[in-house]
Amino acid sequence: MFKKILIANRGEIACRVIKSARKMGIKTVAVYSDADRNALHVKMADEAVHIGPSPAAQSYIVIDKIMAAIKATGAEAVHPGYGFLSENMNFAAALEAAGVVFIGPPSPAIEAMGDKITSKKLAMEAGVSTVPGYMGLIADAAEAVRISNQVGYPVMIKASAGGGGKGMRIAWNDAEAAEGFQSSKNEAAASFGDDRIFIEKFVTQPRHIEIQVLADKHGNTVYLHERECSIQRRNQKVIEEAPSPFLDEATRKAMGEQACALAHAVGYTSAGTVEFIVDGNRNFYFLEMNTRLQVEHPVTELITGVDLVEQMIRVAAGEPLPFKQSDLKINGWAMESRLYAEDPYRNFLPSIGRLTRYRPPVEGPTATGIVRNDTGVFEGGEISMFYDPMIAKLCTWAPTRAQAIEEMRLALDTFEVEGIGHNLPFVGAVMDHPRFVSGNITTAFIAEEYPDGFRGATLADDVLRRVAASAAAMNRVAEIRRTRISGTMDNHERRVGDDWVVSLQGTEHAVTISADPEGSTVSFDDGTVLRVTSDWTPGQPLARLNVGGQPIALKVAKIPMGFRMRLRGADLKVHVRTPRQHALAGLMLEKAAPDTSKYLLCPMPGLIVKINVEAGDEVQEGQALATVEAMKMENILKAERAGTVKAIRASAGASLKVDDVIMEFE
């Protein structure tokens, strides 16, 4: 077995590999750029080597710099993680030439399957059903439009070396094909150093289901069942689960055997993933093979008990797989929510900055399941504009899908993140969505259920009532504490009343509260009675309560006459007032928001790549106005309505903050 391995990656996946290596007694070497000097993976590793400036193109994907780090530290093997150099044949070949073991597949397999154009051709030759498309290289936008018309709209424009949603666009017409081709090409060049693009038919209403395979150097190949990855936004996976709620045993077996056969055909070893799209009749079509560890691998580990990183290391060291296909059973259900540094209330645009508070839920066994959190950040650390916006991968396991969802709800509600925009509210709302709970999902789920973006969740009546009871009980605790402040005037003792009005999400609840040393009993005006117990004290930002016999977790902040409470994707102002205060509050005027309709504001921290118009130009609805780049993604800002540009306030190359003015309209 290896004594020292280098991890040619950063962030969450570097930390994940270090954990398995440490468990195996293997020393680790981290590499880091300027931006990652104080990163968690650097602190966790036994050694760390600086490899260059912050942009990945000048550090993490420069093969010579990684090779120099290997030579300097004497690492015997390299784990590439995912992204960066993980599917780069030249990197694998360079390691092989230097006598260093690549913890991944052999370079011919990477060449055959890692390149999406080549992999589709090989799959077709092997008789695997594939999606119609054009596998050749595309020279320019005009050719992309011509090919798109031949294939038939809608089409998917994809980077040949792509992954993780980078360099991918869906086009429904000629204009979108031309625009999407150029943006995909730019993103592919920046993210992978390879700007080749191909086009395929976009299959509407599909499920994205993938098979995890694992192969050793002794001819053994197994599949570790499937992962359902249909909850996607902009082709980026957001929520994954294992197994799929859609597959039956026959389809699962057929997909698994086909995935193994494909791996055999290219001499594959190590962990890999064969991705399929599956239609409503359970017909499945080969999409691509990722010749690396997937981001979502933890859900497979939770239902099979197999440490995939450990097995990758053991396979690379020449060991045979310790199990057969018949040994790999599905145990329970696992969910994964990807926590991204993006603002769901601003159409999920990237958010960067310092994590002023980062408190994930406690990992390990719970009363009914397991909580796991894979991360590469820490409280006080910064989310950089140079890399992928992922903060963490929160996973839960339970015996059934319904229980795994409930575990995830509680885990999300106890996950505290402050200082940046993040998608915790959104994934929390999805966990409560009836369609998701039923398992009736496709890759179009987010687009169909949130067509106007995310504006926060609306809680069901029973949940609102539990929140109201919680607020009433917590308010009583706070009020009693205020009556005990020292230094008050004599004969001015304050009594805490029993009758209150709780206002939240447009509803009002008149309640009466009685307390005892064990908790509070909250009685509603319709006769409902809820018992509330908790050890919460004023000032704590997280409240864990039991309401009506069910656990509930609330992120809490004080506001005048109440609380700001966040749970399950809802961000609520909850006012708890006396009946007299409630009556007077109804007479107050609400402050109007400022009018920004005549400005194009920068929706995220980022770099202005291009300004498409000039002062005096007339623009039409949907016309591209500017392009902003952040976290390796290009975002084209378009006109919301027709108008005339009055002034340009920013120029290409400028670095802007959120809500900085880019241009003004008449």
Strand order of the largest sheet: 14-13-10-11-12-15-23-21-20
| Number of helical regions | 17
The main β sheet shows up as: 9 strands, antiparallel
Q: In what range is the share of β-strand residues?
A: 25-35%
Give start-end ranges of low-pLDDT stretches.
none
* Overall outline: globular
Distance between the termini: 69 Å
- Would you report the number of β strands? 40
Helix-residue proportion: 25-40%
Query: What is the C-alpha radius of gyration, as a whole number of Å?
Result: 27 Å
Query: Roughly what is the average pLDDT, rounded to an integer?
Result: 93
Instruction: Look at the helices and sheets and give the structural class.
Output: alpha+beta
Which descriptors would you attach to this protein?
666 residues, eight-stranded antiparallel barrel, globular, alpha+beta
Characterization of the model:
With 666 residues, the protein is of the alpha+beta class. 27% of the residues lie in helices and 33% in strands. The chain has 17 helices and 40 strands. The strands form 9 sheets. A 9-stranded antiparallel β-sheet has the order 14-13-10-11-12-15-23-21-20. Strand 1 (4-7), helix 1 and strand 2 (27-33) form a beta-alpha-beta unit. Helix 5 (107-114) packs across helix 6 (116-125) and helix 12 (401-413) packs antiparallel against helix 13. It is globular and about 90 Å long.
Short description:
With 666 residues, the protein is of the alpha+beta class.
Protein topology:
Elements: E1 4-7, H1 11-23, E2 27-33, H2 40-44, E3 47-52, H3 63-73, E4 77-79, H4 89-97, E5 101-102, H5 107-114, H6 116-125, E6 133-134, H7 141-151, E7 155-163, E8 166-171, H8 174-192, E9 197-201, E10 207-215, E11 221-233, E12 236-242, H9 249-265, E13 270-278, E14 284-290, H10 297-304, H11 308-316, E15 333-340, E16 342-343, E17 349-350, E18 353-354, E19 357-359, E20 364-365, E21 370-375, E22 382-383, E23 390-398, H12 401-413, E24 416-418, H13 424-432, H14 434-438, H15 445-449, H16 461-483, E25 499-504, E26 507-516, E27 519-524, E28 529-534, E29 542-547, E30 550-559, E31 562-567, E32 570-577, H17 579-585, E33 599-601, E34 606-611, E35 618-619, E36 624-630, E37 633-638, E38 643-648, E39 655-656, E40 661-665
Parallel strand pairs: 1-2, 1-4, 2-3, 4-5
Antiparallel strand pairs: 6-9, 7-8, 7-9, 10-11, 10-13, 11-12, 12-15, 13-14, 15-23, 16-17, 18-22, 19-24, 20-21, 21-23, 25-26, 25-32, 26-27, 27-28, 28-29, 29-30, 30-31, 31-32, 33-40, 34-36, 34-39, 35-38, 36-37, 38-40
Helix pairs in contact: 4-5, 5-6, 7-8, 12-13
